[in-house]
Amino acid sequence: MTLLRPRGRALLVAVAVLAICLILGLVTGAAGISPRGVVLALLDRLPFVSVDPGLTPAELGIVFQLRVPRVLIAAMVGGLLAIAGAGYQGVFRNPLADPYLLGAAAGAGLTVTLVVVFLGGRAGVIAVPVAAFAGAVGGVLLAYALGRSAGRGGGTATLVLAGVAVTSFLTALQTFVQQLKVEELQRIYAWILGNVGGGWEEVWMVVPYTLVSTVVLLLHGRLLDVLSVGEEEASSLGLNAGRARLIVLLAASLATASAVAVGGLIAFVGIVVPHVVRRLAGWSYRIVLPVSFVGGAAFLVLADLIARSVLAPAELPIGVVTAFVGAPFFVMVLRMTKGVNT
After folding, report:
1. N or C: which end of the chain has fewer CB within 10 A?
2. pLDDT of residue 319 exceeding 60
3. Kind plus residue range of the DSSP H or E element containing 269
4. Do 305 and 25 form a contact (C-beta atoms < 8 A)?
5. pTM of the predicted structure, to 2 decimals
6. Spatial separation of the C-alpha atoms in residues 240 and 226, rounded to whole Å
7. How do the residues of the chain divide into helix, strand and coil, expressed in percent and rounded to 5?
């Protein structure tokens, strides 16, 4: 019971922060709807609760058809990117592993762009996530193979440099594909910069992938703790390290692909949130994985709120907000891990 207390406290704090961010995301907007009315409207949807929110049908439509799905998408995308980052860091035992830096996001972005360009309106709820998953796995494997071919001498930086090279190459291919269909350019460009302003169709599209990838990663928290002590120790405990790494890699890539498919290319969530969680809640992946998911959800809901508010009534791409936070944070982490070999 004692071992569960730190995880329970960390999760409780993370859930409380997420709840605050969700409420802020729902009551804030350009429409000028009364925050009290929004809260009452939400309470009115609860079972056995009946209150009059005092909102017009149009205002109720804004709340439940625009704001609610938006904050849900932001929460799921943020949670997926954060837990994927933690999973990649556990698999590669590399504190700089991240869906964006490893080429996973770029690979998913390329394949989704291919689907959008060549299938257009026929790109449905199955084609886009499947294509994103294939691209995410391909991008990570390519970066890992390139890093391995350079040898171990580069330490922590080797995999990051390989990921940057793969990301640059895949991004160049994506730009080339975009030019093949100029009429889709604005849509693709808006998606690349990050956009969680979808509707209920996008919510239901990403829910099953969120559940599968998150559950698989959470079930492997203890195995990642064992892997972190080394291959020989893991084998001595009867752990099939290769199979465990493959499962976590696929689950993290599925999480990344799902986030990219619905939210676009949003950088740095997967490196910022897990590092903050480790500093505040501990280094065990049984704590890092669940708290990263909840913390990532809160982080991106808050980032979306900032993106909607800074230039209101216009919107700043959410990827710009996460880059403002993530880029200096990445430099700090890079300096902290200087000279570390993994």
Report:
1. N
2. yes
3. helix 269-281
4. yes
5. 0.89
6. 11
7. 75, 0, 25
Degrees (nearest 5) of the Cα angle 203, 207, 211? 160
Residue 208: which residues within 8 A CB-CB, separation 6 or more? none
Three-state DSSP state, 4: helix
Nearest alpha carbon to residue 284 among 17, 6, 80: 6
Does the pLDDT value for residue 79 go beyond 70?
Answer: yes
2: pLDDT strictly greater than 70: no
CA gap 210, 296 in Å, rounded: 13
Residue keyed to tokens 């494997």: 141
For residue 154, pLDDT beyond 70:
no
Q: Mind listing the domains of the chain with CATH numbers?
A: 69-336 (1.10.3470.10)
Q: What is the pLDDT averaged over residues 148-160?
A: 65
Any alpha helices (H) in the chain, and if so which ranges? 5-27, 35-44, 57-62, 68-92, 104-119, 127-149, 156-179, 185-192, 200-219, 221-227, 231-236, 241-263, 269-281, 285-309, 318-336
Task: Say which residues have a Cβ less than 8 Å from residue 29's Cβ, sequence separation at least 6.
Answer: 62, 66, 67, 308
CB within 8 A of 167, min separation 6: which ones? 100, 101, 103, 105, 106, 139, 143
Q: Which of 132-141, 173-182, 235-244 has the lowest mean pLDDT?
A: 235-244
Which residue bears the tokens 């752990």?
A: 239
* Cα 244 to Cα 39, 84, 272, 279, 316, distances in angstroms: 44, 15, 25, 25, 40
Copy the structure tokens of residue 301.
């809901």
Tokens 């056995």 — which residue?
48
Q: In this structure, are residues 33 and 62 in contact, taking their beta carbons and an 8 Å threshold?
A: yes
pLDDT at 301 over 70: yes
Q: How far apart are CA 60 and CA 90, in angstroms?
A: 44
Calpha distance 277→301 (Å, rounded): 17
CA 200 from centre of chain? 19
**What is the reported pLDDT for 170?**
92
- Alpha-carbon span 75 to 258, nearest angstrom: 13
Q: How far apart are the first and last CA of the chain?
A: 33
